[in-house]
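Service request form, structural biology core

Requester: graduate student, group of Dr. S.
Request type: structure prediction, single chain
Budget code: on file
Notes: please return the result as structure tokens.

Sequence provided:
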Amino acid sequence: MQFLQIVSIAQVLLDPYYRTIEGFTMLVEKDWLSFGHRFSHNGSHTSATPMTAFTPIFLQFLDVVHQVGVARRTWLVMLMFCCGSVCFN
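Core staff response, request fulfilled:
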């Protein structure tokens, strides 16, 4: 399942369409639902036993997407600040 995270993150990083709400929804449907990811089992919605341990694969993917979004906004703000200060000095 790790490759699913990597492929999905790469698509979010490389294709601006997947950074929109519509594109992100399509990405989850295309890569996670059609692949057969068991959200209820891997999302700790059922009782986990030692044989069926909780694995937060989708939650890790969402966290990476969130962190990339935060980093991207921070980078854009810094770029706008630097360009603004250079242009107006």
